[in-house]
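Appendix B. One record, verbatim.
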Amino acid sequence: MTITIWIIVATLAVLLVLSLKVVKQYEQGVLFRLGRVVGVKKAGLTAIIPFVDVLHRVSLRIITMPIQSQGIITRDNVSVDVSAVAYYRVTNAVKSVVAIENVEAAINQIAQTTLRKVVGQHTLDETLSETDRINLNIREILDVATEEWGVAVTLVELKDIQLPETMKRAMARQAEAEREKRAKIIAAEGEALAADALGTAADIMMAHPLALQLRNLQSLVELGVDKNSTVVFPAPLMSTIGELGAFLARENAAAAVTAPNVTAPSVPDRPLPAQPAPNGKAQLASATP
């Protein structure tokens, strides 16, 4: 009798253990009774009928799913390897269990095909520069496909884009040429601004001659900072000396024209002193008028 009681108590304990299930805070339990869905159990302690009910726990947390690298040919016929990462969560526990067998594997496969499809519709430059738009397009396509599965894709991000080595070198040359072009344009703009400023300064100096002299003095001060023996003659000084010489020449010419004609006294012919001849005899040279 005692053994029978112990058997009954043990059986009841086993049934009690089998009938009590714990659903965690981040889960929902889909209850099947004889193969039919009878409800959804919330977080906490739940009692079921052993051997009759089956409870499937479904996590409602956001799941991070990496999308492995895909070999993709872009619209401009460039081969690239693109990998991404997707974030999704279950919004309907019943659909995620009933509508599809393995929701994680299904999302992984459709994410790979969607990534290949969307990136293949863009050129290489668009793939590198417009990643936000590509991410949004992939997420929208996945949302439509996974809505029937009770899953919502919250975010898709391109993680890595691998380019061929030849394309990397070509892009490096292109970037270098672009930088050189910008440098030349900036230098040309600087020259244009400098020329404009110099023209304005020249106009001001033409209106105020004293400003040019002050600028020359400033240049001399700057040159005299270092101890050297350089002698600098400002250009205005040299031009002043030239103008002074021209003025004196004009004055002399005018004086020669206005002066009275004066007859020079005649000089009588005088014999020149005797010079020794090559043969040793003195010869007398006469002056010619």
